[in-house]
Amino acid sequence: MTMSNTPMAANPLTRAVLEIDEYASGLGWDQPARLFALVDTARLRTQEPALAAQLGLDEESTTTGLTPIEQDEVPTDKALDEFLGTIAWPDAVVGCALTVERLMLPPSAESQVPEGLSDARLAKWVASHPDRQEVRMTVAVLRDGSRDSAVRLREKDSPTEVLTGPELVPGLADALKATFED
């Protein structure tokens, strides 16, 4: 996937997160979760030249950084954390990323959450809250523990309105990092 709006000054992991966010944005909203392997672009070109060419990475200018490769569909009949617990990556994969849409409440709504709700009832309560926001979160981690995230609000769906940072979605980053542990 070749992305046009990704700042070249960003580090390779941030660029990969923003590339995936832009790709997901092009698919529109109300999409299923998507999982990506992150591979070293230079290594991919050397070890898998046909795949690199298929991905448009056979040009010299694309020899550095990370290449996101979308994996098979994320199952919808299993909780995301359960699914992530079943993943084992081959050595050629240096990191992984996940993009997922969720409803989010502002911090001011935390005090309003009724106590003792089941997960299903809590989800229903959040979905009906007047201050809820639809967000798309893209989170990536590397084997060495590096992480980065991008969060896009549906109501501000613009590449210039994407928040980035390593600690925006720490729980999801931890779950992705666990996919690399033995």
From TrEMBL:
Protein's UniProt name:
Uncharacterized protein
Instruction: List the source organism.
Output: Streptomyces fuscichromogenes
Which InterPro entries is this protein grouped with? PPA1309-like (IPR047681)
Lineage per the UniProt record: Bacteria, Bacillati, Actinomycetota, Actinomycetes, Kitasatosporales
